[in-house]
Amino acid sequence: MPSKGDKEEPEGGCQDAGGVHEPQSTEQLNVSRLRSSSVEIREKGSEFLRDELHKAQKELKLKDKECERLSKVREQLEQELEELTASLFEEAHKMVREANTKQAAAEKQLREARGKIDMLQAEVTALKTLVITSTPSSPNRELHPQLQSPSKGGFRKGHGRNKSTSSAMVSAASQNVAPEPVSSECREVDSILFAEFQAWKESPTLDKSCSFLDRIYREDVGPCLDFTKQELSELVRVAVEQNTLTIEPVASQAVPVGKVAAEECGGPKKCALSGLPRTCKHRIMLGDSGNYYYISPSCRARITAVCNFFTYIRYIQQGLVRQDVELMYWEVMRLRREMSLAKLGFYPSEM
């Protein structure tokens, strides 16, 4: 039989064992709670991140749509700008063509008018000759056909004087106005010059360092603008290059205007560029200086020839000339010939 003391020991041992298991279960419960809470937090966090990701994706789509819309607007504006530029250039070309047509028509009318004036002057000269050579002591038989013999003059009816006078005027006019010779000009493209022009045409510029303009400066522009007054010649060349030179006809009462000395400006009877006594029908102004310089017809022809050349190459640079390259080349050669002739002293009489 176990003793009382023996029974109490197992009970105490059982109590000790129960005391050990209770802390272990509590700790496990706490760990499971922590695990469940961490899982819950992780799920909520992932759900929050998903929501934020969806929002970001929506905003990105909206921005992509806005970028696409702005790109379309930009392309439309660029297309409209190109169409507007093309229409402006076309309008400019049309205006230039119309201006050239009107200028050609005006020049033709001017030539016809000058021809009529020459004819009238010849008729007046013939009339003066007939009147002067007819005196009472020695009458002119052309003015007085009734004095001619019947065998030579024949029977005349009506106003014979008018008929004879008219024939005399026609004969005088035919003597004074000689027919212009008809000549056919032959020309051939120089390979070196044409190659230089083609290279310049690919990228047109007014920089005289390129081979095309360098040659023309050396051979044409420089000699054509080389006058006796070197300082004024240099100012004229710069004004022509910068397109700031003005040429205007001289009024009969005009006097030198400006701050420079009158002897430097020349006068109606003295050319400021050559320094020679010449009848000056035009004067030039360089930029906005307000100083006028009187120039002779020869100097005006030389300056005008250079200005015409620069005007044409500026049109080419701005894209206003829509012609074949060879036609543009021959126009440049024609302008170079004008500069060479002007340098040699040849110029139209209307200068």
Automatic annotation (TrEMBL):
Transmembrane segments: none annotated. Residues 46-130 form a coiled coil. GO terms for molecular function: guanyl-nucleotide exchange factor activity. One of its GO terms (cellular component) is Golgi to plasma membrane transport vesicle. Keywords: Coiled coil, Guanine-nucleotide releasing factor, Phosphoprotein, Protein transport, Transport. Residues 44-128 form the GDP/GTP exchange factor Sec2 N-terminal domain. One of its GO terms (biological process) is exocytosis. Residues 1-37, 135-176 are annotated as: Disordered. Residues 23-37, 135-151, 163-176 have a biased composition (Polar residues). The keyword Transport applies. InterPro entries: RAB3IL/RAB3IP/Sec2 (IPR040351), Sec2_N (IPR009449). Belongs to the SEC2 family. PANTHER family: GUANINE NUCLEOTIDE EXCHANGE FACTOR FOR RAB-3A, RABIN3-RELATED. This is Guanine nucleotide exchange factor for Rab-3A isoform X2.
